[in-house]
């Protein structure tokens, strides 16, 4: 049956790590099979992550803009309404189109696609329980574990995906909750909170830590939080959830300061638990072949993405490193290049991170806090979007660009951007870091006018010299 002859590469998991690895392996001339249990390719990212969330962020942003800013631009209509079913339908269409697109790419590149749950029998044999009950054994000289991650629950809270939801349920609500509580102020919680806040929910974000998005540059984070507060999102930081009561129509959360103290009750129609994600290796049979995992269930790998068992590799969310789709893809390509006898390389210090709210926040490289902690002498250049003509012309001038460079050499160490489209703007900074560019290199690169990207150039000018437009 499909995939039962020996493969050069077998990939377990068809997410952005796994499917990209499979395509790249086939492109390098390796006989490749990819096993996926979900019935659709694309993994968390495409099915219940990056893609559906961005679809809803876009749709809800359009509604919010129509309601709050169109009239200012001279675009008027009588009534703006949300048709939630249609909005969800648009999201589902985007997801299914892209999922089928990957199946098409598998065919084009001659990757064998096996639908089912994979489990190690030996380091070169995978037993697959097919979606229709049939069982096959897939053999491969090299096996890549790309099984990704799953929602992390909280002790004492049962996720029913209706009133107590994970991000998966929050992407598929059938009604707009009047009150939504988000537990966890990471990027997923803030993105999903934004979606529902724009559609009319009263959103309160409860976070155990003293700050939202801990990985963010502190200065940017402060401005970002203020911006979300202006959008009527409420924050309860340094607060923990101690109990949840779902016995009545309304969900009641008992809260307490993280450090202990007086309890309070917060009510909601829907509670989103977004306290992080766990590596997923359930039912994979790692113990049977002796693949080690660390304290939090991740699979440690060496520079070639090899586990402690020869011929067994691991990539993506299931290994240490940023839990992001593009990082998983980079892992996948490098891992397969090593298997094919070439060289591969992924620098986790240069993986951009983006929060797709409005404004967006994007960053690459080190934060000011990290540079300080490393004891590196540095300079900072900043440029507010208020000085950017394109941002002013479209009346969307919230935010700034901040560049951190090494004082002695002017080498760019980190770039942090908050503005609409920051997620697109960040890539010239990523390229600058890859090429060890100086802030002067960015500043002397001719940037088209009028573009938001000019703010990056101006911030670079301000890093080693002075900006013009502020
Ligand atoms: P996954 O995408 O989790 O894929 C693993 C696949 O393996 C799954 O499809 C699973 O069914 C399958 N599998 C597992 N075990 C087996 C088995 N034994 N046999 C067969 N198949 C198996 N990242 C970004 O970069 N940008 C974003 O905007 C972004 N937004 C997100 C929004 C949300 C709401 C969520 C939840 C995540 C988001 N992420 C985002 C994170 C991103 O989804 C993950 O980092 C990415 O999907 C990891 O890719 P992966 O291939 O390692 O694993």
From TrEMBL:
Q: Which residues form the FAD/NAD(P)-binding domain?
A: 8-332
Reactions accelerated catalytically: N(6)-[(R)-dihydrolipoyl]-L-lysyl-[protein] + NAD(+) = N(6)-[(R)-lipoyl]-L-lysyl-[protein] + NADH + H(+)
Q: How is the cofactor bound?
A: Binds 1 FAD per subunit.
Tell me where the signal peptide lies: none
Entry GO terms, CC: mitochondrion; oxoglutarate dehydrogenase complex
SS bond list: 45-50
* Top-level taxon of origin: Eukaryota
An additional note in the Swiss-Prot or TrEMBL entry is: The active site is a redox-active disulfide bond.
Q: What is this protein called?
A: Dihydrolipoyl dehydrogenase
Q: Which organism is it from?
A: Centaurea solstitialis (yellow star-thistle)
Taxonomic path:
Eukaryota, Viridiplantae, Streptophyta, Embryophyta, Tracheophyta
